[in-house]
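Task 17 of the worksheet. Students: predict the tertiary structure of the chain below and write it out as structure tokens. Keep your answer in the requested format; marks are given for formatting as well as content.
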Amino acid sequence: MVQLYNTVTRKKEEFVPRDPGEVSIYVCGPTTYNYIHLGNARPLVVFDTIRRYFAYRGYRVKYIQNFTDIDDKIINRATEEGEDPINLARKYIEEFFIDSDALNVMRADVHPKVSEHLPEIIEMIENLISRGHAYQVDGDVYFDISSYRDYGKLSGRTLDDMQAGARVDVDQRKHHPMDFALWKAAKEGEPAWESPWGAGRPGWHIECSAMSLKYLGNNFDIHGGGHDLIFPHHENEIAQTEAATGQPFVRYWMHNGFITINQEKMSKSLGNFFLVREILAKFPSETVRFFLLSTHYRSPLDFDDEKLEAAGKGLERVKNCLRLIYESEKNSFADGGDTAGFLSLLDLRRREFETAMDDDFNTALAIGVLFELVGDINSYLHKAVPDSLVSSTALAGAVHLIKDINSVLGLFSLDEGGNILLEKNRPGGGELADGLLELIVRMRQDARSRKDWATSDNIRDGLKELGITLEDTPQGPRWKR
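Model answer:
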């Protein structure tokens, strides 16, 4: 039974889908005027993992993630670069997929773009006007927040609180200072589309409402995004959508916590703004994903290079365990050692993993279970290998469980045969580097067979300085990073 934290009710609730056996999810995507930054990457990875876990639990998942390709930021950036705004947005959508693919984020079932959904947006605005929830002023259309009595239920703010803390230009044409734009009249030199109110373009909030309703319908299951979207974006989505349909909009609202840099919120003004592209140039992509999942999604996540390096070392423990399994499989038997006891332990670890993920998708605890599993496997092999009591059944069970956990956490990619790729995006990795290491290890073995201990020790010490540990076992030398 999955329990998730609902931002509206401010408590964990049992997940009950709208449609039995199915899960409908909409996640706000980026505004496409630049490469994605670390703050964009966190919700991508978080909600991709949530999607994967529902699939692991047997649900059919429909997952929608949009692109905002019409926006002030895009227009301003396009003006700076002398580029057409739609072409600029298209370029950064392509770049988005390069980064998200590197982070092993599954493609959404649909990636709707604002520029391709103007008819749906205009129809929704017309509906709001006809119901008395919106009004036109000089080609602009505003939502009348006083017409929706539950405004503020997501953020928990009152209108007085919002008005006092808001940074909005005072516009005497508005009925209320907090009324927000559904349609913006065209300005000279800006892209515009025809509408019943004249040429212009949609406001930010109406876009997600129209697209999510088109693909998921009313009262869909989960709407997700970063904590910074709670107000005003998601608050406004709820108001305009429920005002337009007269029905509940979303069953569960989920938001991930902020990224901080040395305990300060990441922002351009503070100069601590990191693009994913820059981080992937320094660290393997699976390490970055592992780092993003190492903290519960609702908690702040503090970023620095040392934490990423620690994440890389943790991930290497899992890789070394898998290497050890693959090596041990060569000398395993159908049954050997305490197979039943080990399989029982695997069942326990699976239940612990599911318990962690059922509890509001606690990936930090789930990763802890993965490390416990690695320790169990290493202990089993340490006892079984010297006496040649390695069970192929036990090893197959261990690999199967790691693959199932990986299907949720998405740490490793798979090859065409469904096997985990251990060396993806590792600096200095790949078949050539591994082949050279194997050659060096054989040269050391030749030196040992000649009792040339000085050469043998020099090779071992040199590899250690490069971060490669050699272990001499009864089955021969074994190396690991």
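Marker's comment: The first helix runs from residue 38 to 56. The two ends are 39 Å apart (CA to CA).
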